Amino acid sequence: MNLAWSCSVSSTAPFTSATNNALPKTRRRFHVKSLKRKAKTGSAGLLREPKKELSRILRTEAAIRGVENKAKSNSHKQLWPKALLEALDDAIKCCRWESALGIFALLRKQYWYEPRCQTYAKLLMMLGKCRQPEEASLLFEVMFSEGLKPTVDVYTALVSAYGQSGLLVQAFSTVEDMKSVVDCEPDIYTYSILVSCCAKFRRFDLIEHVLAEMSFLGIQCNSVTYNSIIDGYGKAGMFEQMDNTLNDMIENGNCHPDVFTLNSFVGAHGKHGKIEKMEKWYDEFQLMGIKPDITTFNLMIKSYGKAGMYKKMKTVMDFMERRLFTPTIVTYNTVIEVFGKAGEITKMDQHFLKMKHLGVKPNSVTYCSLVSAYSKVGRIDKIDSIMRHVDNSDVVLDTPFFNCIISAYGQAGDLKKMSELFMGMRERKCEPDSITFACMIQAYNSQGMTEAAQKFENMMISSKNNLDIKLIEC
């Protein structure tokens, strides 16, 4: 699948932009639905969609902040249920765990509040995504204090909260606890999450144990289980085991490969530079009748870009345009990162301008890639321009962005600006990490300011000790 790529894909598969039919059927237990009406789409509506989306985000942020402020007071015990519950759902959906827990604490103070396991399950799943196992454990205890009996959903969410943070001992222990509770035996969804967490941390030895237990209990693997194992093997570069698991999946008869399977094979081979293998598997899945989605194309763009195959990267983007696959923020971030790392500043800028022109809103990752590229070629003026963009936007910044911008100004010798950004991290609710301190220390040492460098080294040690103490207390 070399030069004939665009011809082969266009002739062998009638692509459409809709790929929902390829999704595996899973139980919708933890999906948090917004109570707000979705904007209608249409030819005119598409042009207004970016502004509507921005307006929705701003309203959501304002609602969450408003409820957060009330949560800090003890006098708000008769709030309107709809507003409070919507704010909680929005905070969960945005994975703003601190806000969500604060709003939930306020919810529990209301005279009309009734404890529900479903609410706890949603919160626990969110805490798992946010890597907050200690908070999840405390929330689980709160549920007991309210007299609730945990359901399978709640226990499964707790397994996820532990497992996604790598606390596999606690995750397995929770599964054992489930077995001792009446009508709360672990099911296929519990085991699938456990398998997914083991695969994520490359504990394939534990996966064999889980599969053996499932077989003993008469629980058959589903597509989610197989896809989790395939994805884990792929990311670990264990291609033979990956192929064997796909064969097991096909022979199972109860589940079939889908677009997630396709993406795992494309992503794994592309990541490890096996471009021909990636293209081969892409064609193989086409023959199985499995259509790609936007994620497939984003993975291929990244793989081609990483391999320096810019013509093929452009071919994929052209194909997407012909087949009405709308590029996402991930698509543009990938292209910007590829050209930025290659030093192709002009091409990078062109795609950044095109992205904004089409109404795709840049995020922290976009700006981080731009700053890294400009820093690499010594264009500090361009970095100043990016900072003006950021200041005039509502983009949510994170610690990696601050690390990137602090490093850029540090390398340029602008220690004043670097220090201002370090102080501004707290205002943006971003905590400095070891990379932040390392950038500051390196910048001060390079300017011969050893005393200032030592100060930040002491701050880094103090910060680590405080974190260790907090974890022990939890």
UniProtKB/TrEMBL annotation:
Domain of life from the UniProt record: Eukaryota
PPR repeats: 116-150, 187-221, 222-256, 258-292, 293-327, 328-362, 363-397, 398-432
Positions of transmembrane segments: none
Record keywords, A-Z: Repeat
Pfam families assigned: PPR, PPR_2
InterPro entries in UniProt: PPR5-like, PPR_rpt, TPR-like_helical_dom_sf
Any one GO molecular-function label of the UniProt entry: mRNA binding
Similarity section: Belongs to the PPR family. P subfamily.
PANTHER family hit by this protein: EXPRESSED PROTEIN, PENTATRICOPEPTIDE REPEAT-CONTAINING PROTEIN
Designated name of the protein: Pentatricopeptide repeat-containing protein
Biological classification of the source: Eukaryota, Viridiplantae, Streptophyta, Embryophyta, Tracheophyta
